[in-house]
Amino acid sequence: MCKINPRVDFAFKKLFGSEENKDLLISLINAIISDEEQIVEVELKNPYNLADYRAGKISILDIKAKGENGRWFNIEMQISEDYNFDKRAIYYWAKLVTEQLSEGMMFKELKKTISINILDYNFIPDTAEVHNCYKIINTATGKDDRLHDIFELHYIELKKFKKSYTEIQSSLDRWSSFLTTAHKLDREHTPKELASDKNIVKAIAAIDRMFDEEERQVYDVRMQSLADVESKIASAAEKGMEKGVEIGREQGIEEGVERGMEKGREQGLVEGQSLFFKKLLERRFGALPGWATEKLTRATEHELEAWAEAILTAPTLEALFNTGPAIS
User: Fold this and answer.
1) Cα 95 from Cα 82, distance rounded (Å)
2) What does the radius of gyration of the chain's CA atoms come to, in whole angstroms?
């Protein structure tokens, strides 16, 4: 079985950001970008280097690459929840654009830069799509006239990938399946839907033997750090919600939610982020469908009180909202 989680950024960087695995990176990129953008070769601009990581020269384990067609790519795997990731993604896209220009170069020499962000949590609300792509369009016509074709940003939300092996159809399906089920895979027991892809087969073989003792120690420390963060967030969420419900029962739900939000922030729940109750629902049930968001927007105090009391025990989002009066 694969003993390494490829969704951990340190492992992802070595698997896809090493010279010997450039074919895997090319396959992953081509699974995400359009048919007309497909590449056959890449030049790694910041290849995996353990010495740099040890020396503290790198903290963001993204992968920068340039295709043979001049396109630039920034690929990042994000395992910890960050609800400001959209701003971060645009920042790193812009940074890679500016890095293309050296002194004396002209703006016309800038090449299309594509940001690919693979997230191990739900981020984009009101959609169940695993893959979402953003471009600059003309709002007057609603069309992409390619006037600003230099920008392209992709999100892959792995928590939304629900397909079984028999439902796999595309290359992106295969890579999503690999990333989410690597702990169940080995070379002897690989589903035929994945075994038909030579790049997936190579990735399965590579991930099972890609760390030496020193790298394994770094990986284990990274895993422990991520586990500590998740534990603190979960504890803060539970304490913040319990406090909000308790105060809500005593003084009314409006004040209770406000106090609960404050308590959640004190415990480090969202660290400067907002929408306490909505974020708790997303953490418990995943991305909220449009009807649930509308219910929250139009909810009365009585409905919020009923939902707050039921959030820790409700098995589904539908069951939770059925605890309050229906919204006409």
Assistant:
1) 19
2) 22
Same domain, yes or no: 198 and 225: no
Range of the domain at 133: 9-211
The CA distance from 251 to 77, in Å, is 44
Average of per-residue pLDDT values in the chain: 82
Q: Examine the domain organization and report whether 142 and 63 are in the same domain.
A: yes
Is residue 310 included in any domain, yes or no?
yes
Residue 215 in contact with residue 197, Cβ under 8 Å? Answer: no
- How far CA 239 is from CA of 182, 185, 246, 259, 312, in Å, comes to 33, 37, 10, 12, 11
Q: What is the dihedral of CA 232, 312, 294, 80, to 10 degrees?
A: 20
CA angle 129, 289, 30 (to 5 degrees): 10
Residues 295 and 313 in one domain: yes
Shared domain for 316 and 289, answered yes or no, is: yes
- What would the pLDDT profile of 197-241 be if each residue is shown by its tens digit? 999 999 999 887 888 888 888 888 777 776 766 666 666 667 766
Same domain (yes/no): 194, 274? no
- Across-strand partners of 152? 114
Cα–Cα distance between 72 and 277 in angstroms, integer? 39
In this prediction, residues 170-193 reach a mean pLDDT of 91
- Residues 63, 68: Cα–Cα separation, whole Å: 16
Residue 80's SS3 state is coil
Structural domain total, the chain = 2
In a domain, 112, yes or no: yes
